[in-house]
Amino acid sequence: MINYRVMEIQDYEDVITLWRATEHMSLRDADSRANISAYLDRNPGLSFVALFNEQVVGALLVGTDGRRGYIQHLAVSADLRGKGIGKRLVGMCVDALAEIGIMKTHLFVLNDNHAAQNFYAKLDWYPRNEVTMMTFNHSDNLNV
Ligand SMILES: CC(C)(COP(=O)(O)OP(=O)(O)OC[C@H]1O[C@@H](n2cnc3c(N)ncnc32)[C@H](O)[C@@H]1OP(=O)(O)O)[C@@H](O)C(=O)NCCC(=O)NCCS
């Protein structure tokens, strides 16, 4: 049986291990323990983990700027995919966002990650082809 609960900073090592083992994850210095700890503090009750035999087998990081929600780093262990874990995690976070009045949520998917795009489309998410992501980097470090 899979259990679900809010992500805590104590989950960090398990979660980062899962993310590192997952394809299409863009992990950066911003994903350090200190940064994730601050992120969870700023966005309480919005990020979730899925547990099987007390092991983290699914995770997603979710926050809000107070106006929109943002999902990042959704991952499910490769050996447990196709069992509804990803769908449940996304459902839990959009419900948690709705409870605090955030009705619209965005996420970024790599252009070549068609599997994730198809997964989200199945969950009624729609692509925003009218938008181009742009970034300003206040550093010479491309990995910040
Ligand atoms: C994308 C991912 C999170 C899906 O997790 P999952 O637990 O396998 O997905 P679920 O079992 O909850 O699937 C939910 C629905 O999406 C469908 N689905 C899942 N993966 C799919 C795919 N690659 N193509 C089409 N549909 C898919 C399922 O069939 C299911 O449909 P149903 O509700 O009609 O049965 C998982 O494949 C993963 O971790 N991928 C690698 C990381 C990644 O790309 N993350 C997204 C970054 S933006």
From TrEMBL:
<dbReference type="InterPro" id="IPR016181">
    <property type="entry name" value="Acyl_CoA_acyltransferase"/>
</dbReference>
<dbReference type="InterPro" id="IPR000182">
    <property type="entry name" value="GNAT_dom"/>
</dbReference>
<keyword id="KW-0012">Acyltransferase</keyword>
<feature type="domain" description="N-acetyltransferase">
    <location>
        <begin position="2"/>
        <end position="139"/>
    </location>
</feature>
<keyword id="KW-0808">Transferase</keyword>
<dbReference type="InterPro" id="IPR050832">
    <property type="entry name" value="Bact_Acetyltransf"/>
</dbReference>
<dbReference type="Pfam" id="PF00583">
    <property type="entry name" value="Acetyltransf_1"/>
</dbReference>
<protein>
    <submittedName>
        <fullName>GNAT family N-acetyltransferase</fullName>
        <ecNumber>2.3.1.-</ecNumber>
    </submittedName>
</protein>
<dbReference type="GO" id="GO:0016746">
    <property type="term" value="F:acyltransferase activity"/>
</dbReference>
